């Protein structure tokens, strides 16, 4: 089976495996992290067809024919995505949750360029951070929106 990941067609040998393992083990895209495996933590979050998706609960075959975007696909060459720049300015601790937060924030800003604090809270709230970095995460999402509106 073929998948389109970060704009590239990739051959996948195990389409029945969960997407998180296909991305990490078959395609070498280890930016997508594995945490709980039950859809609770959000560290495995990727975008499938632009939708926030738990890769630990989604068979790779379910992404066939749709664009998969992982954290490796956010930057444009040397140019960071606004959410990457904003999280650099608001660093977290261990960073295990970070790819999931980046992907959720990127999806939020694609559909809501000027999110309210409540919208940020709702979107960011689907991802856990075991280090408790929630204030920095909310600040980073708000900053990313500002950067994106400014054309970064
Ligand atoms: S590893 Fe998928 S939600 Fe936790
Ligand atoms: S920074 Fe450690 S889990 Fe979020």
From TrEMBL:
<dbReference type="InterPro" id="IPR051452">
    <property type="entry name" value="Diverse_Oxidoreductases"/>
</dbReference>
<keyword id="KW-0001">2Fe-2S</keyword>
<keyword id="KW-0408">Iron</keyword>
<dbReference type="InterPro" id="IPR036884">
    <property type="entry name" value="2Fe-2S-bd_dom_sf"/>
</dbReference>
<dbReference type="InterPro" id="IPR002888">
    <property type="entry name" value="2Fe-2S-bd"/>
</dbReference>
<dbReference type="Pfam" id="PF01799">
    <property type="entry name" value="Fer2_2"/>
</dbReference>
<keyword id="KW-0479">Metal-binding</keyword>
<dbReference type="InterPro" id="IPR012675">
    <property type="entry name" value="Beta-grasp_dom_sf"/>
</dbReference>
<dbReference type="Pfam" id="PF00111">
    <property type="entry name" value="Fer2"/>
</dbReference>
<keyword id="KW-0411">Iron-sulfur</keyword>
<dbReference type="InterPro" id="IPR001041">
    <property type="entry name" value="2Fe-2S_ferredoxin-type"/>
</dbReference>
<protein>
    <submittedName>
        <fullName>Oxidoreductase</fullName>
    </submittedName>
</protein>
<feature type="domain" description="2Fe-2S ferredoxin-type">
    <location>
        <begin position="1"/>
        <end position="74"/>
    </location>
</feature>
<dbReference type="InterPro" id="IPR036010">
    <property type="entry name" value="2Fe-2S_ferredoxin-like_sf"/>
</dbReference>
<keyword id="KW-0560">Oxidoreductase</keyword>
<dbReference type="InterPro" id="IPR006058">
    <property type="entry name" value="2Fe2S_fd_BS"/>
</dbReference>
């Amino acid at each position: 089976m073929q998948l389109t990941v970060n704009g590239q067609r990739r051959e996948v040998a195990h389409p029945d495996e969960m997407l998180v393992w296909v991305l990490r083990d078959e395609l070498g895209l280890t930016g997508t992290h594995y945490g709980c495996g039950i859809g609770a933590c959000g560290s495995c979050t990727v975008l499938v067809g632009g939708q926030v998706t738990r890769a630990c609960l989604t068979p790779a075959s379910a992404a066939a024919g749709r664009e998969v975007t992982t954290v490796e696909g956010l930057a444009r060459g040397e140019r960071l995505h606004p959410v990457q720049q904003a999280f650099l300015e608001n660093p977290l601790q261990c960073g295990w949750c970070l790819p999931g937060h980046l992907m959720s924030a990127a999806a939020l800003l694609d559909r809501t360029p000027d999110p309210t604090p409540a919208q940020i809270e709702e979107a960011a709230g689907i991802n856990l951070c075991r280090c408790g970095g929630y204030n920095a995460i909310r600040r980073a999402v708000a900053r990313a929106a500002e950067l994106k509106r400014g054309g970064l």
